[in-house]
Amino acid sequence: MTLEELKQYARQRYIPVMLDDTRRLLFQTVQRCAPRRILEIGTAIGYSGIVMLSASPQAVLNTVELNETSAALARSNFEEWGMSQRVNIFVGDAREIVPQLTGSYDFIFLDGPKGQYEHFFPYLCDLLCSGGTLVCDNVLYKGLVEHLPDKRHKHITVARNMRAFLDELMSGDRFDTQLHRIGDGVTVSVKKY
Ligand SMILES: C[S@@+](CC[C@H](N)C(=O)[O-])C[C@H]1O[C@@H](n2cnc3c(N)ncnc32)[C@H](O)[C@@H]1O
Known about the structure:
The protein is of the alpha/beta class. The protein has seven helices and seven strands; from the N terminus they run H-H-E-H-E-H-E-H-E-H-E-H-E-E. Strand 6 and strand 7 (186-191) form a beta hairpin. Helix 2 (20-33) packs parallel to helix 3 (47-55). Bound molecules: S-adenosylmethionine.
């Protein structure tokens, strides 16, 4: 299966995978950073993982996915792409798994549950080495983060949480962050110390 076919497969089954301009940015960023150890929250069926591992042929990927069916599909996709030796899939809730992770990563892609980024942030800060890169998808969340909707809106909690996360990321002094207004909003942050 080509990457395009993998994307179509996901879209036809309503499995959310990143948008094309996000994919291009992620590929270029990984290629430039040439990481050796990548952590991803939100594997889905392995589409973004394949993109990152293609961009950095020396890298290994640890990736976390809640949905068992998606994780199984991801496993077979990594196999088909000849990448299974470089991937470790943690199946379970990232809220439980991430606090237990140890070691150091030089690249982290955060693309898991959208209302939880703030919760993951301190753990990811600890796991990311100085000079490492954190990429977060959906940070503008359907445009609602910059234009918070009425409190009865069904996405208000996610939008508020995402806004709190984005404020913390952009205003703190530990990260140099660029916000890309592409796709659903993507940040690329380099950890200074
Ligand atoms: C936007 S999708 C990831 C897309 C993938 N990164 C890509 O572009 O190919 C988000 C994924 O996070 C997973 N997810 C949601 N809540 C989670 C949780 N609490 N722990 C781990 N994964 C979770 C979903 O099942 C879904 O597969």
